[in-house]
Amino acid sequence: MIEPLRTGDPAESGPYRLLGRLAAGGMGQVFVGRSRGGRVVAVKVIHPGLAGGHEFRVRFAREVEAARRVGGYHTAEVVDADAYAGAPWMATAYVPGPSLHEAVSRNGVLGAEAVRALGAGLVGGLEAIHTAGLVHRDLKPANVLLTVDGPRVIDFGIARAMDATSVTTSGDRLGTAAYMSPEQVRGEEAGPPSDVFALGCVLYFAATGRSPFGSGPTEAIVYRVVHGEVDLADVPEELRGPVGDCLDKEAAARPTLAHVLDELRPGPGEVARWRLPDGVGRMIAERAEELRDLQARELPAVTEIVRPDPDGAGPDGAGPDGAGPDGAGPDGAGPGGARNAEIGWDPGVKRQPARAWRRRPLVWWAVGVGVAVVTVATVWLVRVLGAEQEPVDAVASGAYSLAGEPLGDAPVDAPHTVRVEIVTPEEGEVVTVDYRGQARTTTDGGTQEGQVGNGDGFTVRTPWTGTIPVEAELLSLAVTAQGSVENITCRISLDGELAAEGTDSYTSTCAVPVDMATALDGLF
What we know:
By secondary structure, the chain is of the alpha+beta class. 29% of the residues lie in helices and 22% in strands. The protein contains 14 helices and 18 strands. The strands form 4 sheets. A 6-stranded antiparallel sheet has the order 1-2-3-4-6-5. Strand 1 (12-13) and strand 2 (16-24) form a beta hairpin. Helix 4 runs antiparallel to helix 8 (192-208) and helix 8 packs across helix 10 (240-246).
């Protein structure tokens, strides 16, 4: 949930304007912000108590630089940071989805298949983090966001910057104690196996709604982390093996992430398909609505009140009603008199001399009309931005690139084609369409792999069809359609053959490949 800014909150952090509060933690406050170019980001502003030490800033700068190298499907990209600002901050891609903690607290625990798919996504995120030479160190339900195309891991790579202060920062230990590994509790070096232990804790929470080490005083929790046996009775039977293996007290005895992924498969060579858990689609739609409302409230004042000069006698000292040389108004009031007070004029403000009123009666008629037009236009603009009205710039059906650029009517010669279709029971419904995926391109300089997508999405009217010529090697594609509409259907066709379809109310998703085990082979 996005909360309004509070008294004392910064209005900006670096180049980002802060719009609202997202969350608070041991390291600081997380805000939703927007760049000058309009990109929405999540901005973490570090707590002043941590930012005072030079050692922290050096660690923070080093870890953020490493975090920028993290890629993969299941992480939130680090886009900017300043470790040496008055209040250090870090900006990541904004993910408009609830945390696992929020989703389970509101909608209940996840089923066995959903936990399998969650675990597979988290393994992918942790593998990307470890490949960049980082260890998360603070994986917990609040740091896992649920999106239409899988879970996203956030706050990776910056926990080490707190190592020098975490022992004395009891609030941080209290917030993460139930998801710390035994070696972290003992103050030992935390490597990738520590993240595997936290992964087991997170999967346990997803399946049961609670930490494997219970609640209570911090001392009691950390004692159970090091010495207590975990009760797996409430974990679905088919998941007790992988969850229990992750929670081994000895770091060397825990499985690798690759082994965990194999254990999470429903069967040999199979992968659980990610679907949004019950109720999460509505939570995503709510966050999109919250963000829209925040942006609408940013509307700047565009009405400028235009008034004649209260002191402004013309060359002959005449006002509009034949007032005398002192600029007296029609009521005989001089500068600063009752008439000025009544209409809010301030004679102390220096203004340009006015023109002769008798000679230019048309000027004041034009000014009056201009003020009326500006005022009416402003009221209309406020109403349009604040109300649920259809936009006039809906994107038409047609051909678009993987980056969302319109390609016009000319035929595009490409080896493959993706077709995205959005339909609703009633035509003309307004829906936001977002597509993104992973593509691999090969040039003389080598092979590169990265994310593709249509940016902030398209606003369309149903039915809508987007044709996407594909020249690169497309590994995956996920489509999300959101709107205040029941039974939105999205379809993905590959070279004319239907490959995926999804229908849901308010937020509908479909993605290819259906079996993510085939992602590395490409879609075509």
